[in-house]
Amino acid sequence: MPATSMEELVSLCKRRGFIFQGSEIYGGLQGFYDYGPLGVELKNNIKAAWWRTNVYERDDMEGLDASIIMHRQVLRHSGHEATFSDPMVDNKKNNKRYRLDHLVKDQKADVIAKVAEAMGQSAENFPAVVAALNANPAQASEALRAAGVRDPFSGEVGEWTEPKPFNMMFKTTIGPVADDESYGYLRPETAQGIFTNFKNVVDSTSRRLPFGIAQIGKAFRNEITPRNFIFRVRELEQMEIEFFCTPGTDEDWHEKWLEARLSWWEAQGVPRSKIEILDVPKEDLAHYSKRTYDLMYDYPTLGHEEIEGIANRSDYDLGSHTKNQSELGLVARVEENLDSIAKLTIPHPETNKPVVPFVIEPSAGVDRAMLAVLSEAFTKETLENGNERIVLKLKPHLAPIKVAVIPLARNKAELVDLARSIKNDLQKLGLGRILLEDSGNIGKAYRRHDEVGTPYCVTVDFDTVGKGEDASLTDTVTIRDRDTLAQERVKISDLSSYLQAKLR
Ligand SMILES: Nc1ncnc2c1ncn2[C@@H]1O[C@H](COP(=O)(O)OP(=O)(O)OP(=O)(O)O)[C@@H](O)[C@H]1O
């Protein structure tokens, strides 16, 4: 059974070294997390699985790693300077600041109903309530107060300001002079680096439509209320694809990508039955989107929340960043661009005339992926002897440690030396991290490796070195299967092929 609460996951992640609060020894920094020894392995494995499926196993994709700090013109013409903002409100009583929609959503049902009524909306249509609050700031602050909207920090009814937009981009100075011109932004999504490199990739690879560019990397959002562990953070990582296709084929590609992405999640242990597909209503679509599917995973404690967005972005992005916009017959409404020096077109596959392609964008968060994968793998079992065990039933390709090699006694040099040499041989197979686990107590070692999801433990005991009761067991080791708890005796000489077959 998957995790039933976020607390279970938070506690496991801290206890076993997956995830720590950022800057913890100075009291922590809200919205920033550090990935520990096992977290970095799991994260790398998720990213590698995504890259393998979306780049290596397809014939229509290229990869990219663009820089994080971007020219302000990029984020001006992408629309982020003007629109990448969330409405926020302050509580005048304690100066705490909240994202308006989060604040209202977390109130009791009767309070939400009162806010909705005051704004002339139905509580069932929550986005419409938020839209009405944003559109009528003065009425909104009165509605929040009259409905008795409580401050989540103090628990008391707040004295709420009018909502105002808050741009979520991190701005930074570039170079030694801090003047009005010398600033850039930390990218709020990786996508823009793909659009600005579109021409470079086309020119250097001779790609023709349809094709896509994949990128994994950090993005930064100054979220007003970061919360729910790594679900909403200020420094996040994204796995994004911009898939360029001929206008008119976009709807078809949108469906294909939806299917491809669901099947990828399934292969990572996140079943379709736990993902709701939200066909985002027209009135809630981002300004660039023709249609968007949000994949809503059923997170413990939070319920269904977005794990990935798959948007049909039309020709908005390349159309916004290209020069000569007026000659290109753009479908999307874009702001005038007199700064770009590149024409972002590609020959139409049938007419050979220059065309600005449409874009399908599957965009997933690595941190949210990690939370979902951990949540699905988390299992509490009662054993035959009545003891309870916690086991992370991660898919082997995602497990941070693939095999733990354990000498039965840590003070017996011949056991430890042989275990080390087995570990070194297995490490050379390139399966991922193999750990020499010589902490001594075999029971504790098994428990630890269950909890961190190690699929196999290999134990070197006295029989292995010919000092046990059964001479026929010399040069064999015990392999313990994490999920079935079955133990098998295998010859050391067969170990590599045995584990390769199980883990590849
Ligand atoms: N603050 C964040 N922390 C962690 N992951 C995030 C954050 N914002 C976005 N993501 C991830 O990046 C993906 C694509 O970003 P997108 O801009 O579509 O998110 P969003 O619609 O702004 O998300 P939300 O509505 O939850 O704020 C999301 O599906 C999510 O997995």
From TrEMBL:
Lineage: Bacteria, Thermotogati, Deinococcota, Deinococci, Deinococcales
Cellular component GO terms, alphabetical: cytoplasm
Record localization: Cytoplasm
Catalytic activities: tRNA(Gly) + glycine + ATP = glycyl-tRNA(Gly) + AMP + diphosphate
Name by which UniProt lists this protein: Glycine--tRNA ligase
GO-annotated molecular function: ATP binding; glycine-tRNA ligase activity
Residues the entry annotates as binding ATP: 221-223, 231-236, 306-307, 365-368
Residue ranges of domain Aminoacyl-transfer RNA synthetases class-II family profile in the record: 8-396
Family membership noted in the UniProt record: Belongs to the class-II aminoacyl-tRNA synthetase family.
EC number: 6.1.1.14
